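Researcher: Good morning. I'm working through a list of sequences from a screen, and I'd like to move beyond sequence-only analysis. For each chain I'm collecting a predicted structure so we can compare shapes side by side. This is the next one on the list. No need for commentary yet; just the structure.
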Amino acid sequence: MFYKAEDSETGESANSLGMEVKVGFLRFSLTTLWTSSVSIVITSVPMMIFVLIFRNYRPLPGPRTKKHLKGKPPELTNVDEKPELKENTGKSEESQKDSVGTNLQSNLLPHYWCYIGWLLLVATAATCAFFLVLYSMQWGITTSEEWLTSFVISFFESIFVMDPIKSLRSYLHMPRSISLSVFAKFHYVHVTPLYFADLVLPTDSTALPPDPVPRKVLAQSRKRRLHEEKSQRVFFDLLFHIFFVFCVYSLSYGKRDVNAFFQNDHLDSLLFQSSGDAPFPFQSITKREEVMRWMKETMLPVLFPRRDSLGNSLQLRERVFTSDPTSFRVGPVRVRQLRMPFSENLERTRTVGGYSSLLGKRRYCPPYSMGQEETGMYCVGWKPLASCSYEERNTKLSRASWMYQSFEGISSLPVWGTYSVYSSGGYVMDFSVNW
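Model: Good morning. Structure tokens for this chain:
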């Protein structure tokens, strides 16, 4: 009844006020916190009524109780063998019968209140469920998530807030109960020395005190206690860190961009998961020369389109988007290349044994390794730097792309790829915003 239906057009909820943090399907806000607190206060009243009913109804008398109420003495001792205890035994029987009757009469409600309590409990639960179904028919997914969040918060508030309050109330009520018990009527039993001697077990005055606890046992107990204290500290530290991580995760999850994943997946499908409509799909690359072909025929038309889907030339203000045209280029595009130097694979030559003469000397490119990658300086076209002319070294627009750059120069981090972890340096080529 605290929740209103969301807007039918936008689907936004009209219940949450202020900042809202969403963790999965849970929506945390000041409104849900207030609703859960009010729900706890409202449900505490019927819960206390149910507890009072079930604690104060009179139980049905059992066989032993009926026997005591009829005045039959318990067959514990033979009274005829001890005539001096007849008088005391009669008084004890009367006192026992009176105590049982007093215990049965201490509860205020008759026994049939047990059935009334169960009937009220079932009726209350069924009524709440019925009205919850009626209200939920008007809700959408947003309001349902808010109600579920308030229900979860109410559950934890009942454990960590209401139960300690009830315990504190019982603790404060205890001195009053003790003071009232001073003025209560006591049931006196006349006890003679013979009756007292018969009930109390005889003790031996010559009994020796127990031996002291061995030091080994004390050391083990002390060590066990230290372990218990340490485990308690670790447990509470773990709870604190879990709460801290939950808070950090909740704040970061609430501030995330919900469209970032779909935008990244869309660009990935355009560049690397191209369909048959692409001029040269990424899956067709088998040689290093085909990488440049893929960049020229697929990557550049996607990132820097010149024409639209109808073949019309794009205006300058329209070229800031990609080919979809929904993704806006905020900054320049960077292409980074990592290379491995050629080397003679001596291990492969040893494995073929006597057939090495048929293979001859061949150069192989080993698998990528971060510590063995190429870091040399080249001229345009991967020519040695010493053989470059002044024009190629200073006037070519792409001359910086043939120079190795470390992570300090390009401010990048290592990348976890499909096959390996790639370093943060490399041969970098930066495209402008409107290349």
